[in-house]
């Protein structure tokens, strides 16, 4: 039993905490690690251990296995066996990455390897950590999510960072400043590591892994900067879960749940969330009572953010512009504001053969006019986009004139002025169609988010780095893009000076297995961030 | 057992056959009827009898009960009990209608009663014969359908007709010509008695019941005409079944299955149909081997149609024109031809936030343009209608630019020339949108039916009758409409001079519980047909 216990602690042995509340009760046990090989019989014993520790409402068998997986994450020999038990497919030649010796796959160990071959291969390795074999799917608070968090944490440690995982699933690593710096500030790099269902290999993950590779280069050099560097791997950016939450990781990082009231409100607002946190707490052997969960949420905030000077997020573009223009990298000027609406036209259904055209109140005819006008309005201003993504005819039949149609409208623009003007024009048009055709109209605004402008000073410094790396002729010629999608930088950027770099991705395709960032372009992003950090004298 | 048997035969005791192949093996047993009351215990015995007669693959319990119901259709006392057993709700004050004494509800017995109060109340009674309590649903070859057929047959007998039911479900009654006429011709009146799911009370049924009421008036008068009158109640006009058949009744009447090859082909083409026929045969105690079913189908044809001079169908308009113009009745000039197409646009899906408007290949944008143009083309010619009734975005999401859209197009017109011209213009436009937007396009014609013009001579005679009944100033002022929906007259009209009368219905609503034909207008249709028959000297 003692050997089992010692191994159980092995995984919680990483470093000490700085910002984000981790499982501090387990700290100080790092010296219990063992290197003895584990057999399948041992695995069975471990399952038993976890089951015995289970409580009413505790974890499922799969979650138990997941815990065992996590326990064994640094033990390559047994890892393959455990993975097969939950259908995770990680090929044997990736196993070495799961140990703290993962840099051994990169024998020559130079900087281009770390920010190139190794960085790219880590994407492939992480892509195999999934809930559903055959596709990439890492929902929030899933087994795969916990597993991926542990993998990310191992890589942070490998890069010379101290690290922690907190209850919301964020993994934060810290690379300390040059000790000669008094009151050093902190630069935070990062993105998210959760994924949509049937995802690609780069969305979010790239910003985490590239940041880790940048820090690893600093460590290899033995170089300390006049500021600390943290890498934040946020969970739940995509909102891929049954809870209905989104951006939980970034929100927690920004202290949104740092009061008891806010933490309790979060649990009350989203059904199933408390239970999922509880199971995760049990997996980690922590206090799973509500008070324990609330405490964990409060600690998930980093406390004061006063020392944080900047947040920089690397992310694939998820759009086609950079590729179309032959550029590997661009700078985001703003994360677009967004208005989402649900529109319903109510007309009169009728027989497609017997109701004359002149006597119809065709809700689809009205909607078709609206779709065309929304497209025209979207085209009327650079950077503005307007999309009808869903359209449903209620009780549709090929021989029935549509009596009711509902569709969604999604409007995004880099400035709120442009967006709100477009929304007004769309609403006016919808009403004019209603009046002209004698229908009923219902418009529901389902979401409204203001644009989040990125910090001009950081943008300037990033433009200089891009130019110095020879990727553009001058800082002024760097491509400026707005971000049509939401990102962690949208949450962080509300309080902390933030910037985003976009990397070219093939065909602009994202949220899709075909998502592709070339190894070359993956390296480009890391090089630019490294150059940016090197250029910073003090912050 | 002998009493049971004699009662079992009671229901098959009606008349002798003329045109449509009936269950002739049961003819000649009409003298076995008994009038002794039946108790619930008797009912149990009958169930037992039927169960004992069951074979492998035989009828379900519900179907057995249905058979018993059919057996008891002329025995009001037990009828309510049996109905409750299968959830059919017929109120006790309608029970008298199910006996051959149903005219007793109409105490004064004059013609306005027969074609008025009684006609209307029979609609209410038939509406309660349904597969699904609470709504009207008489699918093809269902228990409710068999029950309704027996009820219609009883009313035919009540009107002085001989009658029969054949395997496809058609009920045909015949009122013989004046015996002094040599080689009398036949005028066929009728429509269908099946219904769509969640139907109204008048679609189809009206044409059957009004025709029966006209014949009943002739019988009350003791009047014979210089031609025979048949009332055809067709089954399966609506195609409401899992088999995929439609118009089976009218097609059988026209001899479409009168050869062994055609009968066997029908059974092979539609999955489940043979089994449904078999169960019906068992219910009726007939030969349920395939050869027996094929024989039944061959007999369902009326043999030579040479003696049939005309087919006249009364039907609710199912459209809003007559009501809008304040007219109770109109004459159909043609049953519109129809083209149905399925259209698919293939563009490129993309993120609604990140793909600029100018780089999109939005399949919904293309489809919206198409829907608007199809509506304009529909409006370009009187009588032409063009409808997009279904439209589906493949993998729709509010934040994804639609990459693939499919929609249906339904084009109908009273002449083939107008329809085909509209179809050509639609296809040309679809292609121009494809080319302009750089999409892929797939057009599949799924259905094509030519227009069926109604017979001008019968139309003229009906216009005269309408005018003589004081419903229009002159024959020339009668409203002429085209029929946008298909009807039995579309099948019959291919070979036999045919005509249709449309009756005003509320709001043009049909295929809906709200379907409404006023008692006044129901009478109008019967009066016009009676006048038409009276005016015919010889045919
Ligand atoms: Zn992302
Ligand atoms: Zn009908």
Automatic annotation (TrEMBL), chains A, B:
InterPro entries with a match to the protein in the record: Amidase_Cbmase, Bact_exopeptidase_dim_dom, Peptidase_M20, Peptidase_M20_dimer
SUPFAM superfamilies in the cross-refs: Bacterial exopeptidase dimerisation domain, Zn-dependent exopeptidases
Highest taxon in the source lineage: Eukaryota
Cofactor(s) listed in the protein's UniProt record: Mn(2+)
Transmembrane segments: 64-82
Domain Peptidase M20 dimerisation, chain residue ranges per copy: 337-432
One Gene Ontology term of the molecular function aspect: metal ion binding
Keywords from the named record: Hydrolase, Manganese, Membrane, Metal-binding, Transmembrane, Transmembrane helix
Subunit architecture: Homodimer.
PANTHER family listed in its UniProt record: ALLANTOATE DEIMINASE-RELATED (PTHR32494:SF19)
The name this protein goes by in its record: Peptidase M20 dimerisation domain-containing protein
Organism: Rhodosorus marinus
